[in-house]
What does this fold into?
Amino acid sequence: MATSKQAEFRNWNDWTDPDFFAEGRQSERRFLPLFIRQLLPIRIQKTRLTLTGWMLIIVALGIGSAAYNTASNILFLTLSLLLSSLVLSGILSLINFRKLRWHLKVPTHLQAGEVGLAEIELKNNKRIFPTMSICFRVGTSELAKESSLYLPSALSAGASTRLDWTFTPQQRGSCQIFFRGVASKFPFGFLNKSFGEAQERRVLVWPARTVYHFSPQPAGRRYLTGVARRASGLGSDLLNIRSYVPGDPPRLIHWKATARVNKLMIRQLAQEGESGFNLHIDPEQSLWSAVQFERLCSVACSLADDLFHAGRLDSAGVLGEERLAVRSMRDLHGFFDRLAELSPVSHRDTTAEWHGSKNQITFRPLGEGGIAIYVDDLQVGQADD
Amino acid sequence: MSMTYKSAKLTTEELHEVKHLMGGALTLLSFWSLLSLKVQSGWLIALAMLAILFSLLRPRSVSRIPLLTWRVAGPLLLIIIGVDLLLHLPDFIPSLVRMMVWILLYRNLAPRRQREDLQLILLCLFCLVLSGVMTVSLLFAFQILLFTPMAMALLFVISLLDRGEQTESHELTWAHFSWGRLTRRVWSVIDWRVLLLGTGLFGFVVLVSTLLFILTPRFDLDQAIPFMRMETQPMTGFNEEVKLGDVSSVQNDNSVAIRIDVPSQDALDVSPYWRMLVLDRYSDGRFKVSDSLDGFQFREPMTVRELHSERLPRDSRRGDLWTFYMEGGVSRYLPVPGDYSVLRFQKQQEIELLSEPRIYSLDRVGQRVFSYQIEDLKFNDRFPAGRREWQGLEGAKPSGELEAPEYPQTTLELDLSPEERRTLSEINTGLLKGRSLSAATYGEELSDLLWEKFDYSLSPDGQVRFTDAENAPDPVINWLREGSQGHCELFAGAFVLLARDAGFPARLVVGFAGGSWNSVEDYFVLRNRDAHAWVEILDPESREWRRVDPTPGSGTSALETGLAGSLRLDTGWGAWLDSLRIQWYRRIVNFEQKDQIEMALSLKEMAKAFSEKFSERMKAALLELKAWISQPFSAGSLMRGIVAVSVMVTLYLIWCGRYLLMGLIFRLLRRPKALDPVRRQASRYLKRLREIHGAEAQLPVIPELQALRFGPEVNPERAKPVFTRAKKAMRRKGVDRKGTDL
It folds into this structure.
């Protein structure tokens, strides 16, 4: 985490910033820090010659040499035109970058094997000039190579747009999504200027969905009918009206409440009838091979998801840690986040076993790569290789 | 123009089409520039231009050519180009031009990606620069100014299309192409702001390039390498061999041969003769430079930048500069009318000097304009004979054909049959009548005789039909016998032969006579029609070669008198257009370090003068202020002081509120309705009614006021009754929200 001083430092303007002369942007007024900042700018504008640029340089050198050798003013005239086009290119390129704001937006969560979408919000705050030919170098920590994200057409003055790219994370865990600043060869392609510092976001990748079989015994006994449980589920009695959380089924939207408060509201129904399950995972290293452990996480994730949506998940957790009551999507996502970062542990503390809860779902290895699902020490399902 | 600028954008396919068509236009421009080079490949360039035009009009047809064709065409072209180069070595420039044409044609017609587009731009630039350097013509300035924005626009489109692999792999199909459709699409995208901005940017480029051109330091590299000079044939009439009629044939051409920057119009001679070449031998209708004159004895080759002469007395040297701009293809001989102090070239120049006949010659006839400068030029009508000339002519007599013709004996040579010599002798006998005349008198009387007997005409009579046939009569003699009109060469040729027969050494001189004055830019112009031939006859008494012009109407043959100048005045569009060229030569072609220094010095002088004037004015103002402050106060001075302070305060307030002011002006321009007094008044009444009766008051007058405020413009007369009712409503205080009276 950057310190406050570093954060402050990063906000200072330096001479490579196209908005260096924009009023109100420079908050630092002391001379010495400003001076140092100009010497060692962070927002370094990297400029590389493209093929066109190299050609221009070589042609200009050739014409310049010929001009001095022959004292021909025709060649001096041509050289002057070439150099002035370079000057114009620099000015237009500077204008192109001016008052351009961008922001990386990443999904709140990802799931392994499923397509994720990241966006760059781009806004052109200029009043007159459009911005053109912008390119972002984007990538994720999983991909070996960065890819380029191009602005498809000119961004008019005052307009904003979103550039999105999709990627598919393959493994659960922490995924860095980044872009390395903006580049452009505008206007004539002589120079490839890249500007701005990189932005990076960390997103947790949940375990992939997997196929499993789960047939719990009806000894998940029915309660007496008509009695609603004070837990949310899929019954018919209204328990609560709460705000919409991404992932909630659309059919539960309470439209009248939504119209009244002007934001999406969800009917939370009471669970009735069937009892819920308490899911926990044992990450003991001696129990699982590497492949099985990954499969375990996937099965636990898939099962917890399905049980929650069926209104039958009371709690979930990892053995040796605090049990997490699952009452909302947020709690469920919290469990998935934990699964994303879960690693096998050895010699876990056995004193922290969960005791006293019924309908405990546990997992045990099955064969070489399979996972067996147990409810109260009775196998009720499995996930094969 | 489009009103939907924000939404109209060209698709990728359309951008590719625009890019391809712009490449074609650029190629046509470069072919146009190559046409200026006279390299006998005009037919190839014309064909190539036709091919490009076809590809622009019917690009779909060209795109259907199979790829294999281009793959095969490449190596085939290399072979053709290689063979052409080998066959024409060492003169490789025409082959180079043909190579450029082939490559450009190939590159334009074959499918192109980004790399090939850049190659195309480079090739076009090379063609333009090649043509510009070779010809140094004003047309190059126009072409490069056309090329610059077109190339920038093409690079811009290429940059827009650069979206990585997505556009690299795009294949241009021309499926929906038509010129009308594309033009409409481009028209819908272009906005007046884009055009204005583009024009502004182009102006900026021209301004910056002008500054760079002026400020780029020039170094005097005396060892400059001569760069790709193309030789061409000189115009007939200014060669080492001049056939009768050669000079006159040039006189049919009205194009400019030489432009001269003169110190002033008064510095010109009354009848200026621009002497270029002396021809001493005559035979069968041909005047030529003898081998001995052309040989090492008289010829001094040298490589110089400046040539100093001691012939001009020091007291008559004032530093007046005459700058000559001789168009390409005129001659290798430089017109030098008389004595001078310095002859100066732009850089080290290889010249050949024939010092005694005073002929200055370059090593070749260039295709481009050649400029040189003469300091303190004097127009001579007589030239002292050189030491070797006098030694060779002392005591010499007219002779027949010389076996070993040596200059200056060739100036007395008469290669004629005895019968022809008799003709000359008869004429001379009739003229001299036994008298012994001086060269001056002889020249006058002979000229008068010729004028009496013959008229001037560019279509002479008395000409011999087959001059090359054996025993053909000499054309000049034949003309003397049978002719009645002739051109300057016949008059001068006849004079030379008669003078030699009379014992006076004489030689033909070719060059220009007269000229015209361009009043637009104040310079002197010599056109090809001013080409002329006259005579120089040796006066043994003064040991000088004296100029005699025996052609009637061309000036004077009287050596001691001068008639009114035969200078014409150039005015009108033609003169204005020609003045552009001299400006091109002065300010661009001949711009050098000396000019930079002069410009810098004059800028410095201007800045100094300005600052001195400014500081004087400030001092004067300060003194006045001090005087005003120190004088006793009066009502008048107090008023003046108050006014001055008020003005300053007002200006300060305007400065502080300048953005407000600009915003107001902007609003005025955008929404003049905001200033409508009816609306303003309605707005005031609405606001007041709301304050008195509340925001939700439902008075009948409120909708009427709102209509006046927001609705269409209304005449103040029609608004009056509404305002009257509004005033009444304002007076009715205590009205509740529902509008009922309490």
About this structure: Chain A has four domains: 2-97, 100-206, 232-271, 274-383. Confidence is low (pLDDT under 50) at residues 219-229 of chain A. The domain at 100-206 of chain A is CATH 2.60.40.10 (Immunoglobulin-like). Chain A touches chain B through 42 residues (CB under 8 Å).
